[in-house]
Design goal:
By secondary structure, the chain is of the alpha+beta class. It has helices at residues 44-53, 55-60, 65-85, 112-115, 152-161, 177-180, 184-190, and strands spanning 93-100, 103-111, 171-176, 198-204, 209-214, 221-225, 231-235, 239-243, 252-254, 258-261, 270-273, 278-280, 297-308.
Length: 310
């Protein structure tokens, strides 16, 4: 029995053929020579003509052309009514059709949000198979909780200037003066088990936002540590990064009394006391930076430290 017309299978000729071979998955994240499937359904008029042309064969099998046409029109009307009741796919759903001469067609449903992180396949009809691949990275990082100091624009800007190995990784709040109080010891303690980069963000009493990205978590050390990924930054109000100049290796150092980032030439690029209350920022050879705050000496209003988890 033919599922479309309802007529016996021996009364109808085959309209479409699909290859019946072992199905194989076609990942859209890999190059493939397969073309998108285009299903060409013939109009009812053409099928009607086909039925009339073969009416002799139908009569031999006991089917009249009028009976067959009635069945066709009844079936089409039923399918049309069902189609009207079907719900449209949500806008965040894509349905991709794939087929080749060695595989059955199949349907894969992918959420648009998920597909942003996957390589996508594009091809144009009427031309040779051409594949364009691109991968999008969400500009706004995923935070473990809301930041009290950074708005969305500042978050996007900072994420874009951080090293490539941090792109797409979630941010975890490690320390906040609003949550943990003002203590450099607590800051060190909260980072004792970390082995990932950290982002220090400060807002001073003049509402100026600035800070530093460190390739290593802050810790007590007799020697300087960190790599050339470390940099200072400020929003003044536009974002201004200060990269490592290469002139010295005074990147990050700290003890129980203070934390220092950048140095040489008589001043630190960024300095904080043991209570995370007073700080200072001077131009230094390590980053060739201007003072990050409105004044070289400043009072901390709020402070956050985020780590980028791989």
């Amino acid at each position: 029995m033919d599922i479309l017309s309802g007529a016996p299978s021996h009364c109808l000729r085959t309209v479409c053929h699909f290859p019946v071979r072992e199905k194989r998955n076609c990942s859209i994240s890999e190059p493939t020579n397969e073309k998108p499937l285009h299903l060409n359904f013939k109009p009812i008029a053409s099928l009607t003509h086909k039925v009339k042309a073969d009416q002799r064969g139908y009569k031999r099998d006991g089917c009249s052309s009028g009976c067959l046409l009635d069945m066709w029109h009844s079936r089409v009307q039923s399918l049309t009514e069902k189609a009207r009741t079907m719900k449209l796919l949500p806008e965040n759903i894509k349905v991709l059709y794939f087929a080749s001469d060695c595989a059955e067609p199949y349907v894969e449903i992918i959420k648009v949000k998920d597909s942003k992180r996957r390589l996508s396949l594009c091809s144009s009809e009427g031309s040779e198979a051409e594949h364009d691949y691109h991968e999008e990275v969400d500009a706004l990082p995923v935070l473990s909780q809301h930041s009290q100091l950074l708005d969305d624009h500042q978050l996007e800007t900072l994420a874009a200037h951080m090293p490539a190995r941090t792109q797409g990784c979630p941010w975890q709040l490690v320390y906040s003066t609003a949550v943990h109080g003002s203590s450099l010891r607590t800051l060190y303690r909260n980072m004792a088990e970390l082995d990932s980069p950290v982002l220090l963000v400060i807002k001073d009493m003049h509402k100026k936002v600035f800070g530093a990205f460190s390739s290593d978590p802050f810790k007590v050390s007799k020697h300087c540590y960190g790599t050339g990924e470390t940099f200072l930054f400020s929003f003044n109000p536009e974002f201004q990064p200060y990269r490592w100049s290469g002139e010295n290796s005074y990147l990050v150092s700290g003890n129980l009394e203070s934390l220092h980032i950048g140095g040489g030439g008589g001043g630190f690029g960024l300095w904080l006391d043991a209570d995370l209350y007073r700080g200072s920022s001077f131009s230094c050879p390590t980053f060739h930076n201007a003072s990050l705050s409105t004044q070289e000496d400043f009072i901390v209003q709020d402070l956050e430290v985020w780590t980028v988890m791989n």
